[in-house]
Design a protein that fits this description.
274 residues, alpha/beta, TIM Barrel, eight-stranded parallel beta sheet, two-stranded antiparallel sheet, 9 helices, 43% helix, binds zinc ion
Length: 274
Amino acid sequence: MIWLGPAGIPTVCKERNTLDGIKTVSQLGLNAMEVEFVRGVKMSLEIAKQAGEIAKELNVRLSVHAPYFINLCSKENQKVENSKSMILASAERAEAMHADIVVFHPGFYGKLSTHEALEKVKKECEDLGDRLRSMGIKKVKLGLETTGKQSTFGTLEEILQVSKDVKNCVPVVDFAHIFARQGGIIDYSKIFDYLKPLKLNHLHTHFTCVQFSLSSIGKGNERYHLELKVKKPDFELLAREIVKRNLNITIISESPVLEQDSLKMKAILEKINK
Ligand SMILES: [Zn+2]
């Protein structure tokens, strides 16, 4: 099964709220939406429940993106604690809306070595897992996203390692971030092979085209998102790999035109599937 939809409320949706966003996603012929708490978790649990009911009725798969200002690697305990509170508040709403994943960017290396950062993220994710369980949240997984800048924790290798070692953690593959971070190179087949040991029954991903700057050969930093038509990277190559492998996958469009590019992705996938 392939789940497609926008990161947030569709651009064409006149009412700028989650409930109407879900309805619009369904009317457009899409079946996924990521609820964005990127600037803070402001949604009430009641609205989250209503969103979950509408999504269930319309067969729209929901996911949640936690706020951007999260840093599990911070040296300041208070900052780590605030980050964890934001993830837990996002997860609480995810559970209420029957979403099975809360996506977040784990943090910045800062002065830590890559190994120290890995250990720190693992430790904090273990604690998050314990706290989710004590809150009675069972279905929501911690989705650690691959990140697009050299300064941020989150190469595919790092995310895979946390996912292997810590219960409740799964990778969220942001293809644009991998492409930018590797200086404009991406091998979809290699990524899927690499994830195989995790035996995931569903993979959550983000796709957009992206402008990046090169920091050295094979290394880059994400700058801004671009529309699908610029083919940086080329979605069709990814689509072919997904169809070939018959993956159970969600692809959230983070393009500047959100759902409009989800519809283009859908058309490309249908063309290949014929
Ligand atoms: Zn993200």
